[in-house]
Amino acid sequence: MLIDSTALPPDHVVRTDVCIVGAGPGGLSVAARLAGSALGVVVLDAGAEDPEQTPADVHTQIEGTNTGDAYPTVDFVRSQGLGGTAVQWLEAGQSFGVRLKRLEEQDFRRREWLPHSGWPFERAELDPFYDRAEDAFAIGRFADDVTASSPESVRHPLAVGPLTAAEFRFARRWTLLDGQRAAFTGRSNVDVYTRATVTELDDSDTPGAVNRAHVRSAPGRGFTVEARWFVLAAGGIGNPHLLLLSNRTRPEGLGNEHDTVGRFFADHPAFNHVGVRLHDPQLVARLGEYDAADRGGVGILRALSVDADVLEREQLMHSWTNVHPRVSRRYLDTVDAAREVLSTLRERPLDAPAAALRRGGTIARGARAVFEAVRTGTRQHVIPSGWAQRPLSPRLFEPGVLTLASTYEQAPNPDSRITLGTTVDNLGQRQAHLDYRWSELDLRTARGTTELIGKALADAGIGELVMPTDHEYPDHAGTENSGHHPLGTTRMSTDPKQGVVDGDGRMHTVANVSIVGSSTFPTGGSANPTLTLVALAIRLGDHLRTRLA
Q1: Secondary element (H or E) of residue 193
Q2: How far apart are CA 178 and CA 20, in angstroms?
Q3: How far is 314 from 452, CA to CA, in rounded Å?
Q4: How is residue 472 annotated by DSSP?
Q5: What is the pTM of this model?
Q6: Whether residue 124 is found in the same domain as residue 174
Q7: pLDDT tier at 119, thresholds 50, 70, 90
Q8: How many domains does the chain contain in total?
Q9: Bridge partners of residue 191, in order along the sequence
Q10: In a shared domain, residues 148 and 243
Q11: Is 461 left (phi over 0), alpha (psi -120 to 50) or beta?
Q12: What mean pLDDT do residues 326-334 have?
């Protein structure tokens, strides 16, 4: 049942077996697994059923402040409302939806040269739950090594030397969310409360165990949820933020005896500054496997990665690189100019004529390129797709030049962290503060991977790297062009001094709280975290059904 918590009477008390904080892919996956059981389940989310209807003042609850290296604003990588961050998954510009991939086996293992690496279990432990997560997304099964089943020279002409082809599959966001909602719709044991902001987990009755969650539906109005077990599924920033706010009995925050809550913040930084000038421009016609396309009813994208043994030898972290024809400078300049004029029109209407006059020439010169993109249906959002389905227009793409759009793993860094800031939200709660830090290993991985790819393509006679003219790649710490995948802030560890939860997602020092989501990843690999966090959520749902039966 869906319940708008603003309709509840003041100081209402809800009693249940399991209380889940967060109605994103992780929280709803746990709820769906518990649907139909003998357990009462309550799901709480700060947003509205339709995220578009969430009031503006509620948005202040996911805002915050940033310091350190360059990174998007805190609220840009968070969401409120039924579906959580899934509502941000691209479909309009990139019609296939969310990219999905399993983490590699090596991602779970301890790397001696990478401090704080290693999961509490091998990937084999998670593989059965990956299967179930893939079923939930309706994407079929992955080929672990897509180069092994077909000749590299035919289907994957860039998989040369240490380079292999990595496979991503796409799912539409509502495939998962509709399936989750169907699992508990009509089930009497699952209630989902919207407009319900959890402000504190209260362990004052029994230290070491949470007895209730304090919830606000509006300033000065709230209710309480009492439960046997609590599940935090509020994301890589929301999970540590709530634990730090829950400081009634522990000034440092709930479960933070060893000062680990909020530390090890990481993401998947992305760069697309490097190109490859092909010796044979006609090779582009054979690169269709690297275009996102519908293959047998499933959207599939293949990208380049570096062999795991080579990465281990070179002591570099994981990455993946999408390859596509380089979008023309004229097209990009035109789009930037048009966005500037439209933004000025919205925010400062009186300045719009001057902005249009200043940027009008650029828009006029590039209008044919934009028209060509619309006419051919070639999508230029984030990663161009559809380019292999039709002849390449020189107005849209630079002939014979590829772009390497790379996404990287980041090293676990305890100095990169979430804390409580000095600003407050509409409820008077301290907002999250992010101090985002890059390490030298992060930079070395980006540089080293680029060099490996460049050498492999040059040795094979395919082409030469085209480096950006304005800076060495990359010569700075941080980039606002990230995967928007907050990771690691309530990490798993077998050692309570090194992490917040154990291998089952249960908090080390709080007996009845589990955490699910990318915040628990000890290392993040380079794949999008969604498939892994849904697999972990299904696994947690199984554990709770057994434990609390």
Answers
A1: strand 190-194
A2: 18
A3: 10
A4: P
A5: 0.88
A6: yes
A7: very high
A8: 2
A9: 42
A10: yes
A11: left
A12: 68
Same domain, 277 and 160: yes
**Amino acid present at 401:** V
Task: Say which residues have a Cβ less than 8 Å from residue 47's Cβ, sequence separation at least 6.
Answer: 23, 54, 58, 79, 80, 81, 82, 194, 195
CB atoms within 10 A of CB 124: 9
Encode 84-122: b = buried (16+ Cβ within 10 Å), e = exposed: bbbbebbeeebbbbbbbbbbbebbbbebeebebbbbbee
pLDDT of residue 102: 96
Structure token pair of residue 253: 């925050």
Name the domain boundary from 395, 430, 450: 395
Most confident segment among 78-87, 160-169, 413-422: 413-422
Residue 352 has phi, psi (to 5 degrees) of -65, -40
Residue type, 336: D
Q: pLDDT tens digit string along 422-477? A: 999 989 999 999 999 999 999 899 889 999 999 999 999 999 998 876 544 444 44
| 464 and 515 share one domain | yes
- Rounded to whole angstroms, how far apart are CA atoms 289 and 157? 9
Range with the poorest average pLDDT among 125-139, 351-365, 482-496? 351-365
In which residue are the tokens 């300033």 written? 219
Q: State what percent of residues in the chain have pLDDT above 70.
A: 85
Q: Nearest-CA neighbor of 226 among 245, 206, 241? A: 206
> What is the domain range of residue 126?
2-328+399-547
